[in-house]
C-alpha cells in the first residue's frame, strides 16, 4: 500500500510534456488493461475509449481544447466518450458477454437483465447521457492510478469544447460524446509544476465520521 501512496504523491496534472519521449507499447497495454478492468454501474461500461496518436487529428483538437500544449506534446491523447442514448441493445450485449464469459444459461440472468432495462431505458435521454458520462470518470481514475504506478505522467482535462471534438473525430455518427480527455507521457524538465507541493484538504476537512 505504501507504493501506491508514494506514487499518488508523485503524480500531478502535468502541464508541459517532453514531446521526444514516448510510452512503450508494453506500458500502454498495462494502462489499457487497468482501464478495461474499471468498475462501472451494473458493470455495463457504457463508453468507448479512443487512443489518438495521429498528429494531424491532435493538431485539430488542440484549438478546441483551450490551446493546451499537452494535446500535441504528450505521448498519447486519450478520449473518453460516453455512449449517447444507451439502451436495450447495450444491455443485451452486456448480458451476452456475461453468458459467454461465465458459461451460464441466459435464463439465469434474465431477472437482472430485466431489472437493468427497467431502470435505464425509462430514463429521459438527458439523464441517461449524464449517467453514462459519469461512468467515464471511474475509468479515468484507474488510468491515473495505473499511470502513476508506471511512473508515467498524466493530465485529466475537462477544458475542451465537446461538440467540436465530436465533430473532428466523427463521434456523433458513432453515437458517442466526448466526456473527458486525458494525456499520457513524460514530464518535461522545464515543467515547474512538478516541484510544487501537492495541495489537498486535510483528513479533518475531508472526512466525516458518523
UniProtKB/TrEMBL annotation:
<keyword id="KW-0521">NADP</keyword>
<keyword id="KW-0288">FMN</keyword>
<dbReference type="GO" id="GO:0016491">
    <property type="term" value="F:oxidoreductase activity"/>
</dbReference>
<keyword id="KW-0560">Oxidoreductase</keyword>
<comment type="similarity">
    <text>Belongs to the nitroreductase family.</text>
</comment>
<protein>
    <submittedName>
        <fullName>NAD(P)H-dependent oxidoreductase</fullName>
    </submittedName>
</protein>
<feature type="domain" description="Nitroreductase">
    <location>
        <begin position="9"/>
        <end position="186"/>
    </location>
</feature>
<dbReference type="InterPro" id="IPR033878">
    <property type="entry name" value="NfsB-like"/>
</dbReference>
<dbReference type="InterPro" id="IPR000415">
    <property type="entry name" value="Nitroreductase-like"/>
</dbReference>
<dbReference type="InterPro" id="IPR029479">
    <property type="entry name" value="Nitroreductase"/>
</dbReference>
<dbReference type="Pfam" id="PF00881">
    <property type="entry name" value="Nitroreductase"/>
</dbReference>
<keyword id="KW-0285">Flavoprotein</keyword>
